[in-house]
Design goal:
By secondary structure, this protein is α+β, with helices and mostly antiparallel strands. The chain has 9 helices and 9 strands. The strands form 2 sheets. The chain has a 6-stranded antiparallel beta sheet. A 3-stranded antiparallel beta sheet has the order 6-5-8, with no helix packed on it.
């Protein structure tokens, strides 16, 4: 476990060291899945995309729904110029921005968002700091599962999410890929949280390993984010959350507006661009998984 933790830390700045640590861990426990996964990520960082893909395929044979592994696979495919990357990462079709409808008894979205903001901000520590092992930098994240929160405004938000999720499932349809093959039109929430970013805050690139469909819902944003001349605060897809050789940049972006819900596969690498403002950036996110 010590070798694994050291290897995960090394991934952020020295993939060769991470690969060496992964190999040492595997000599101690050859079948250990976290060590094998660490080796995949490290191989992407030292230019061994073909070996990373082979390792990843073997791991996915045992755990085909592991979203982080699927993300590593798409990264290897992109590095190799494999056409399967474009199929798995069809951002224009698989990232769907929708505008929320105000839930009853609210008559308009603006009023609902104002009341929702007040409810959510009560859950954020005024001068809190980011949780460990999370993607946010320069902000706070709530610690309770919002789907279980008794506040009537927050509960109404999850009622409002049902129609967009149903629309997304109709939009993607059925198929054999990792997203569509699990689509039976039945789903359930698998955790939800709120993030409030402050000046210079952002999300590092990440995936949602416990999800299937993930989301970003924008409750309140700094005014200047509406300016198309800046990319501050926008949501970007495609830049890997691990170092790669050669390096890869984002491939797709969404400019958020208050009341927008963005739905996308949980294996998509995604993050945000830092922003400068005295106003905060308040969002809600959730994961949904197939209802078995």
């Amino acid at each position: 476990m010590l070798l694994l933790r050291a290897g995960l830390a090394a991934l952020e700045f020295d993939p060769a060291a991470a690969l060496s640590l992964a190999e040492r861990a595997l000599r101690a426990m050859p079948a250990n899945a976290p060590a094998r996964t660490l080796r995949v990520a490290a191989r992407l960082g030292v230019g061994e995309a073909r070996g990373a893909l082979d390792d990843c395929e073997a791991l996915l044979a045992d755990d085909p729904n592991e979203q982080y592994l699927i993300a590593l696979k798409t990264t290897a495919l992109r590095l190799l110029g494999d056409a399967r990357h474009a199929q798995l990462c069809d951002y224009r079709n698989l990232v769907l921005p929708l505008t929320l409808e105000p839930p009853a008894p609210w008559k308009d979205l603006v009023t609902f968002l104002e009341e929702l903001k007040a409810s959510l901000e009560r859950l954020h520590a005024p001068e809190g700091h980011a949780l460990l092992f999370q993607s946010l930098r320069g902000g706070t994240e709530t610690t309770q599962d919002l789907t279980r929160n008794p506040d009537p405004t927050i509960r109404a938000l999850f009622t409002a999410f049902a129609q967009p999720i149903g629309r997304y499932l109709e939009h993607i349809g059925s198929g054999t890929d990792p997203l569509r093959r699990r689509n039976s039109s039945r789903w359930r929430f698998n955790g939800s949280w709120s993030v409030r970013l402050r000046d210079r805050g952002y999300h590092t690139t990440h995936t949602h390993p416990r999800g299937w469909i993930s989301s970003a819902c924008y409750i309140d944003l700094p005014d200047h984010m509406a300016d198309a001349r800046t990319d501050e605060g926008i949501l970007k897809f495609g830049k890997p959350g691990v170092l790669t050789e050669p390096g890869l940049d984002a491939e797709y972006s969404i400019r958020p507006v208050p009341g927008m819900l963005v739905l996308f596969p949980s294996y998509f690498w995604h993050g945000t661009v830092p922003f400068r403002s005295r106003q905060t950036r308040l969002t809600v996110a959730f994961d949904a998984v197939p209802e078995s």
